[in-house]
Structures are given as C-alpha cells and as structure tokens.
User: What shape does this take?
Amino acid sequence: MKTMSTKLTIKDFSVFYGNFRAVREINLEIPANHITAIIGPSGCGKSTFLRAFNRMNDLIPNTHVDGKVILDGQNLFDIDVVELRRRVGMVFQKPNPFPKTIYDNVAYGPRAHGLRDRVKLDEIVERSLRDAALWDEVKDIMNKSGLALSGGQQQRLCIARALAVEPEVLLCDEATSALDPISAQGIEEQLCSIKVDTTIVMVTHALRQARRLADHVIFLWMGELVETGSAVQFFDAPRDERSQAYLAGDIG
Assistant: This one.
C-alpha cells in the first residue's frame, strides 16, 4: 500500500488580529496530491487559516502569527514571499482576472519570474488553459480582455493563471460559490484532475461539495481544530459531538 506523503505540517499555529486570536493552536498535517477541504460555520477562521499558507494575512494590518507552517520541511514564514506565492497559488471566491488580454493574464506569472521566450510562454499559456478546461473556448480570442469572459470562464482563467507558475499547492477560497451550477461543476472536475500534480486546499461552506471532492477534511469551530481525517471517515462516522451536530444541521 502506498504511503501518503505530507505536504504541509502545521505546528501549534495561531493567527491574531491585534489581540484577537482567530485561529487557535492548530496541529495537523495536510497530505500531498489530495484535495483537503476546510469546513465549519461562518466566522470560524477557515479563510484566515487558508490565507496563512501563502501569507496573504501579511497584508492585513496588526496581524501576526505564532507557531509554524512547514512546507516540505521548510517554515514558510522563512521563505521569500514572492517565491512562496509561486509555490503556493490562490484562487479567490470572486473571479479577479487582470484588466489584460486572456493571454497576458496567464503569461503574467511566468513573465514576473523573468521568462521572456515567446515560444515557451505560448506553451505555458496553452498548457495552463488546457489544465483549466478553457483552451477550446478561448484559443481563437486570446487578445480579448479576460474581463469580457463569463463568470465561470473568468474563474477558470484565474485557475489557469495560478497554474502557469506550476504551484506545488493551490488554495481555493470558496472558488465556486459565486458561479452557476454548470460552471461550478466544471471547476470541480478540473480540481479533481489537477490534484495528480498539485496539492489542493479548499475552503467551502457547501458540505455536499466537500463530500464530492475532498479526500481529507479539516473541521474548524470558533478558530479551533475540532476534527481532521479522511473525508469518508468524517462524513460517515464523525468522532466529535460538534462534528455530528454540524453535519446534522443542528449548529452552524
């Protein structure tokens, strides 16, 4: 039986907004090349916890952390933040394409890291758009603004933009919640297909989505880790009473 490897190790990790501790002394491991869903009621610290993995919380005034998040043996708070965000990409709840062409949206990251070879850029753009299941829809309109695409297409463009720098980890913060069901299904299918090469960590409020997609689940409550483990175990036989109540719809 193949041993599951660990991509991220979280040790005694807390996030503070001023004196308020939004995430409280979390210890867990996130497996490589799996989809891990972070679930819990609104305000429980899901997005704050997720954003810590590529240090987006650094942009919020009066925010600080305690503890460690280890990425392949290295504390990510010791990694240059530009390099970290190449290794750990992020897709947000609302599509946020740049006011640039479709091509330039996807090529932005590789160019920012110094790539100027047009042939290589063309290859990266096509590969990334294919991985995001968008290539066939946009290959003939690459000079069109990314802002002119539909909502679902814009979100897939943002995924392609994130994939263009070949991240080791892709963070998705409610990445399908603003989309229609058909577009959301397309995004879900792509997330399942790219986990072969990429570790995916996603925040979702939709328990059905977590059940469909997740290999691994993290359940947070009031900033604390309540339960973590395989999705099958969590949904079929939750151990904690709060997990049972949340799944039953009695709390949250």
Summary: Residues 89 and 170 are 5 Å apart (CA to CA).
